[in-house]
Amino acid sequence: MGVTDRLAIERKELDDLIACLMGSNWERFKHELHRPQFFDLAAVVVEGIFDDL
Asked: Which residues lie below 8 Å from residue 19, measured CB to CB, with a gap of 6+?
C-alpha cells in the first residue's frame, strides 16, 4: 500500500517470456522494460525452472 508509484513488478511464465523476446512482440516488451526506469525498484519475475532456459 502506498508504493504503486515507486515499485514495478512484471511477472512472466517462461513460455510467455520467450514469446515476448521474439518477432514483433519484442518491440512491445522492450517498451514495457523502459517504463520502470522511473520507479525506485523494478523487476521481471520469471516463473520457470532455470535449467529450462
From this structure: 25
This prediction has a pTM of: 0.66
Going by the DSSP 8-state scheme, the letter that residue 5 receives in this structure is T
Domain residue ranges in the chain: 7-48
- All residues at 6 or more sequence positions from 4 whose CB lies less than 8 Å from its CB, including other chains: none
Beta-carbon contacts of 35 under 8 Å, excluding residues fewer than 6 positions away, are: 8
Q: pLDDT tens for residues 3-42? A: 777 888 889 999 999 999 988 889 888 888 887 778 888 8
